[in-house]
Specification:
The chain is an alpha+beta fold. The protein contains six helices and five strands. Strands 3-5-4 form a three-stranded antiparallel beta sheet. The longest helix has 28 residues, at about 30-60.
Length: about 170
């Protein structure tokens, strides 16, 4: 067994599929599945944040890391109101307004009047925003293909299904 990074090691056992060489352990009693899930999600989220920063800079050198997720959402659902975006991301209207203003200044999004409500506007990717985003997304997808080359396509689909299920539960 690897070195115990969590303390004495008493009452713990290795986590199957844990990060190699890291001495990953889990409690043998209680909610060990949920503790293992928490650990793996923490690692995943830390890496995802770092990757978002890299991808944001690839779209535009001045783009904030958090804005990459906004581009993903606009690519999937464009056009949308700023209020819908702030609700989806769980941020305040002022934060969303600041992020959208920055994206507008970089020429990546544009606002247009909402035909259903003249007081509101709809946000959509510009042609340049779409092209830059698509280039980065394609490169990212290729990295996933390379990193998961030894996975069966059904395993990739199952992981996507489970993550979708988790995200849907969290949104409720």
């Amino acid at each position: 067994m690897g070195a115990d990074v969590h303390g004495s090691g008493a009452g713990k056992e290795p986590v199957p599929g844990g990060e190699s060489g890291r001495g990953t352990t889990r409690e043998t009693g209680g909610d060990h599945e949920f503790l293992a899930l928490e650990r793996e999600l923490a690692v995943f989220l830390r890496r995802a944040r770092a990757n978002s920063g890299e991808m944001a800079r690839e779209v535009h050198p001045e783009l904030e890391p958090a804005a990459y997720g906004l581009l993903v959402r606009l690519e999937e659902t464009s056009p949308q109101r700023a209020t819908e975006l702030s609700f989806y991301f769980g941020v305040g209207k002022a934060t969303m307004s600041r992020q959208l203003r920055a994206l507008e200044e970089l020429g990546l999004v544009t606002r247009e009047p909402d035909p259903a409500d003249g007081r509101a506007s709809l946000v959509r990717l510009t042609r340049e925003g779409h092209e830059r985003f698509q280039r980065v997304r394609d490169a990212r997808r290729e990295r996933y293909v390379q990193k998961l080359a030894d996975w069966d396509r059904d395993e990739v689909a199952e992981l996507a299904r489970l993550l979708h299920h988790l995200n849907a539960r969290v949104e409720r």
